Amino acid sequence: MNIAKNIYNLPKFIKNFSEEEKNLFNRIYTFYIKTGKLKVPDKIKPWIDKKFKNCEAQKIIRITNKITFESTLFNELRAKRPIDVKVSEDLNEIIEKSKKDPFCNPFEETPSDVFGRVEGRHCVTASNIAKYDYLHAVIIFKDHNPLTEDAKKIKDYLEVALKWFEKANKFDKKATYPFFMWNCLWRAGASLIHGHAQILISEEPYGKQKFYTQIRETYKLSYGSEYFEDIYKIHKSLGLAFTYQKTKIMVHITPVKEKEILLFSSDFLELAEPISLILKIYYQLGVRSFNLAIFMPPLNSEDIFFTRIVDRGDLSNRTSDIGGMELYAGTSVVATDPFVLAEEIKKFLK
Ligand SMILES: [Zn+2]
Questions:
Q1: What ranges make up the beta strands (E) of 42-176?
Q2: End-to-end alpha-carbon separation of the chain, Å?
Q3: Cα(188) to centroid of ligand 1, in Å?
Q4: Beta strands 331-334 and 71-75, pairing class
Q5: pLDDT digits (tens, 9 = 90+) for 158-190
Q6: How many angstroms does the Cα of residue 307 sit away from the middle of ligand 1?
Q7: What residues have CB less than 8 Å from 303, skipping those under 6 apart?
Q8: Which residues are within 5 Å of ligand 1 (an ion), measured at CB?
Q9: What's the 20 CA to ligand 1 centre distance in angstroms?
Q10: What is the pTM of this model?
Q11: Domains of the chain, residue spans
């Protein structure tokens, strides 16, 4: 049976699951599909009809992860639109005009860490001038334009990050919990346009890292399996998960925001190619501002490297993509249908 690939057909996909697949899905996820209704007064009807077809009945699907309480709302009115690939025409000009910033001249215009810099072929570290935490550096890309997709360059950023983690750990032996983060352009929180990523290492893991470690431990105790592998299996059954080289890629059914993609790898440097692939797909889909984070095991230990990448929306839009629902309700409002996004990824994997 050919089921149209959209999130509202989730019940149909699950109906086709084996007993084992159904049990696994129901262990971790729950969802509802409801219709939100409203009445449109005549005065605004022509305008409303133009903007939204049939807005008087809006199909909503809410999916919740019962283990992590990650929860996402999709509204058919938003999600059924094709992916918006519009990019602000003046972005190239903005990037060009922002050249000659301190990151274009990092050795003279950015501070170094007290234990020195790490330099690669395509990037160099600087000490963050206003630190989030006590060991916090910036990986300054040699390219001013932040929209990198070159796997070789990304691998170099990762190699430099690893060397910096080791160097920072030598300087402060207690600091063993690394974190890699890449905020691209202002919607993602980057204060400078020039391409850069950020690296931190601390004696205590960050909150979300701790959260996932605990989730995985309790899950293993309760069910005897690896939580990340089980959510991957569910996404695979839904046609939302793929492998690329040795990395597992999945389009999240409870995305934190637009087009969220998760990657699982047992090696940090092996992430370069899959990250490059995802960025190529992102750029093709009009994404220009994104957050990427790599959750890493403590230094010198082996475990899963868990990467999350999310689209932060149109750079010309003054409305933030994140509001009270995301910050406080813990339930994200998302437009992009994961099934539609997965089809885009498949085109690149062929
Ligand atoms: Zn620059």
A1: 57-65, 71-75, 123-127, 136-141
A2: 23
A3: 18
A4: parallel
A5: 999 999 999 999 999 999 999 999 999 999 999
A6: 26
A7: 266, 297
A8: 101, 103-104, 144, 194
A9: 53
A10: 0.95
A11: 85-350
